[in-house]
Amino acid sequence: MTQHRITIANRDNAVYRVDPHKPLLTSLLDQGVDLPYGCKYGGCITCAARLIAGEVNQKAQVALNNRQINDGYVILCVARPVTDCTLEIGVESHGDLYRNPFLDPLAAHELKADIATPLEEKT
Ligand code: FES
């Protein structure tokens, strides 16, 4: 079976080999990586990490808005690696995850995809 290499940039570039069919959170926890998590179904954002290089499939996530996705965030409990990836993990990677909605509100295109979709396209 083909595995992908996951490099953790903020853990001395430690490299792990993972199954492309398993969520990254599961694969990395199983190999002893210390990661924050909560719901494990893509809804709470606790396990967010920043993808620096590579590609993941995280279609099942519902936690991130478009702004967070464009800033490189991925939801490890549902994301499967499509290629070798480099990640920044843990709360240290959450520096740009949250933004004060009163000081810096999201523009329409930055909202969650299902909210940002114009009404006429929802039917
Ligand atoms: S643990 Fe809740 S979104 Fe991943």
Explain what this protein looks like in three dimensions.
This protein is of the alpha+beta class. The protein contains 3 helices and 7 strands. The protein has helices spanning 24-30, 66-70, 113-116, and strands at residues 4-8, 14-18, 48-53, 56-57, 73-75, 80-81, 85-88. The protein has one domain: Ubiquitin-like (UB roll). It has a 5-stranded mixed beta sheet with strand order 2-1-7-3-5. β1 (4-8) and β2 (14-18) form a beta hairpin. FE2/S2 (inorganic) cluster binds at residues 37-40, 42-47, 63, 75, 77.
Could you name the key traits of this structure?
123 residues; alpha+beta; Ubiquitin-like (UB roll); five-stranded mixed β-sheet; two-stranded antiparallel sheet; 3 helices; binds FE2/S2 (inorganic) cluster
The run of helices and strands is EEHEEHEEEH
What's the helix count?
A: 3
Going across the biggest sheet, name each strand in turn. Answer: 2-1-7-3-5
What is the alpha-carbon Rg in Å? Answer: 15 Å
Q: What is the number of beta strands?
A: 7
CATH topology, what is it called?
A: Ubiquitin-like (UB roll)
First and last CA, distance: 40 Å
Task: Look at the structure and name the CATH superfamily.
Answer: Beta-grasp domain
Largest sheet: 5 strands, mixed
Beta-strand percentage?
Answer: 15-25%
What is the helix fraction of residues, given as a range? 10-25%
Unreliable runs: none
Structural class by sheet pairing and helices: alpha+beta
Whole-number tally of structural domains: 1
Averaged pLDDT:
92
Examine the secondary-structure arrangement and name the CATH architecture: Roll
Bound molecules: FE2/S2 (inorganic) cluster
Judging from the principal axes of the Cα atoms, what is the shape? globular
